[in-house]
């Protein structure tokens, strides 16, 4: 995770960003601290990436890379405003003795990739349509040695995979069908017949932008209906207020890069 010490909305690169509404910087830090403490209280180790002045979106740490079994597929950002974030993430992983793979193609890390080690022998789900290039899916497959299933995103409000789909455990997912093309919806239905299906209300509340450890599902306080859905599916929802981070187009998952050794 990366603290939002420099977080602001000074440019608009997704439909949620409004440069006319000021960010409450102190509240953003307070909410981020609450998320970090919630994860620690649930028994997880949180590593902190140092924020860099001039990179206000570094708080969305999930976008900086994607790791599987100790190998890291680095990010290459679509927009120049975020390009320098990739170097900060690369430094963190190389310093920590991960195997780091530098990408040739545009991809935004866990924003558009997720991994389910227990599903279909271990499968990567990958989004495209707005940020990550389809060619990055093949590149990730070669670098990580896991099969990649490409899913086309069609609604600009859900510009990253992690705004429209999340892994609930090693085997199953939750997703908002209308964020995907009809063909991608058919693929998801075939791969995950027991998925928890979300609706537009859930998606607009960033209820899919969650983190799950297989038992606890951490999601923002606005996603009450989504919380009820995951509870009905046998998980324990844990709500955290992240209203300020939503101003930049992210929530719980955007703020957390999962480290898969």
Automatic annotation (TrEMBL):
<dbReference type="Pfam" id="PF19420">
    <property type="entry name" value="DDAH_eukar"/>
</dbReference>
<protein>
    <submittedName>
        <fullName>Amidinotransferase</fullName>
    </submittedName>
</protein>
């Amino acid at each position: 995770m990366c603290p939002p010490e420099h977080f602001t909305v000074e440019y608009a690169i997704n439909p949620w960003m409004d440069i006319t509404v000021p960010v409450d910087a102190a509240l953003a830090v307070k909410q981020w601290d609450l998320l970090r403490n919630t994860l620690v209280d649930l028994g997880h180790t949180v590593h902190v990436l140092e924020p860099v002045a001039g990179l206000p979106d570094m708080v969305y740490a999930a976008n900086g890379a994607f790791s599987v079994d100790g190998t890291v597929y680095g990010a290459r950002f679509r927009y120049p405003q975020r390009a320098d974030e990739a170097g900060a993430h690369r430094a963190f992983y190389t310093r920590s003795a991960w195997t780091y793979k530098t990408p040739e193609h545009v991809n935004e890390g866990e924003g558009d990739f997720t991994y389910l080690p227990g599903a279909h022998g271990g499968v990567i789900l990958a989004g495209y349509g707005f940020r990550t290039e389809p060619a990055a899916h093949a590149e990730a497959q070669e670098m990580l040695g896991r099969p990649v299933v490409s899913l086309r995103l069609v609604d600009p409000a859900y510009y990253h995979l992690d705004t429209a789909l999340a892994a609930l455990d090693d085997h199953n997912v939750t997703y908002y069908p209308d964020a995907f093309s009809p063909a991608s919806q058919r693929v998801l239905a075939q791969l995950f017949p027991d998925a928890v299906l979300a609706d537009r209300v859930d998606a607009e509340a960033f209820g899919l932008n969650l983190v799950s450890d297989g038992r606890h599902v951490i999601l923002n306080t606005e996603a009450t209906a989504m919380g009820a859905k995951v509870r009905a599916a046998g998980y324990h929802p844990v709500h955290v207020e992240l209203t300020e981070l939503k101003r930049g187009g992210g929530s719980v998952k955007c703020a957390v890069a999962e480290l898969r050794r």
